[in-house]
Structures are given as C-alpha cells and as structure tokens.
Amino acid sequence: MTRIISIVNEKGGSGKTTTAVSLGAFLAKLGKRVLLIDLDPQANATISLGFSPRKIPTNIYHALMGEVPLKDVIKKTPLFNFDIAPSNSDLAGGNIELLDKMGREQILSKIIETVKNDYDYILLDPPPSLGILTLNALVAAREIIVPIQCEFFALKSLEQLFEILDLLEKNLNKSFHNFFGLLTMYDKRNMLAREILKEVQEKFPGKVFETIIPRNIKLAEAPKYGKTIFQYAPESTGAKAYEMLAEEIILENSKSKA
Q1: What one-character-per-residue DSSP string does the chain give?
Q2: pLDDT in tens, 175-205
Q3: CATH superfamily of 3-257
C-alpha cells in the first residue's frame, strides 16, 4: 500500500522542506519509488531539486485546478525513483480559487488517486500555514510528520499541531495511521536544546521519532546548488540523520504490518 505522508508545520524555518526533500532522497536510495508534491507557492522543494519554477509550463497548480492530469506535471529528478510534482508562485492564487470549489478539502486526495499505484511513498510539502492547501495535504495523508526546531516554543507548537490533528480526525471523520514529531536543528552543545529534547520525549512518548536531525551547515547549503543532501554531502551528519529517519519510517511500516 502506498504511504502518503504530509510534512507540516505552521511555523516557517522548522526544516519542513529540508525534511521533505531529504527524506524523499533517502527513501529512493533505499529502493522505494517516491513522489514529492510541492504545495508551497514559494516552491522551495522544487528549487531544492534543481528546477527553475518559472521554466516549468505546468505545475501542481494546474493539476489542482483540473486543467491537466497530475501525471502530466510530474518531473523526474536526477535521483533514480524520485519524482516531483513542482510548484511555482501560481499556486498563491490557488489558496483563493480552491475555496470556491466543491469538496475543496479533498481535491488533492482525488488527483493523487490517479498516480498512487506508481509509488511506494508520496510526500506532501504544504506551505507553513493552516490554509486550504495545508488542509488538502492533511486530508490526503494517512501519516503526518511535524518537524519541530529545538527552541523554546517547540513544545507549544507540537501540542497545538497535535490538537489540530485530533480535531481533523473528529470533524472530518479523518483517520491518521501515524503522526510523529521530528526534532530538527538540534545542537547538543546548547543546554536549551537538550532540555527541549528531554521534555518533548517525556511529554509525547511514542509520538516523536528516535532520529534527531542535527544543526548542520551542509543541509542549509545543498538547496543553493539544486541538490539534495544525499547528492551534495552524503557523508555529512545531516545526510546520515535523514538516512536514519528514512530507515526508521520504513521500519515503522514493518512494525504496523506485524
């Protein structure tokens, strides 16, 4: 069964897109067929994979509007088994246009159905907000990853997002198979980061990945070159952490089947 994972956080700068791109790369490296759907008008995931948004004539906006099939906007990345449905700034208008459509929160789910069987994993990277695009990503997904930067407001942010996911399950009759917090930008030399790590793990047992993403300059540099961390600096601590995350996610699926 295809696993559809939405990577969400209403706060920018949490490592959301870095996680989407890096996780996708390492799932592909581990032999999985992966599609990343860039739902952010800023198109950071698209740029991170080496594409120029303005040079792509059709993108995820056109698929959401029903102008073209989703399969027609999907592009192959330089990594084997890793595809992307790119975005560009056209999608900013989608926030308004989707509001007028029937079943607006389920549009993404419906178009994903047309390509779902071609992939083992479909990763969704919505904007850092709780608008209609993010709602579509949450409704389409069975699993949620919430990247949380190791800083003072991390705990409150995670609490709020888990509350929102609970509300979605109740109000939209939506069932999530898994949702996990992912601690990012961790610096073990920082006492506050260590305290937050301990507090999050204690307060949300079983709801936080064991893998912790460290603060790593190579992760910040890779998008500048249109490369994933796997291509840019495969031996870096950031790359090794995301490979561990990919392995943990694959293992989580094996546990749930057992």
Answers
A1: --EEEEE--SSTTSSHHHHHHHHHHHHHHTT--EEEEE--TT-HHHHHTT--GGG-SS-HHHHHTTSS-GGGT-EE-SSTTEEEE---TTHHHHHHHGGGSTTGGGHHHHHHHTTGGG-SEEEEE--SS-SHHHHHHHHH-SEEEEEEESSTTHHHHHHHHHHHHHHHHHHS----SEEEEEEESB-TT-HHHHHHHHHHHHHSTTSB-S--PBP-HHHHHGGGGT--HHHH-TTSHHHHHHHHHHHHHHHHHHHHH-
A2: 777 888 899 999 888 888 888 888 888 888 8
A3: P-loop containing nucleotide triphosphate hydrolases (3.40.50.300)
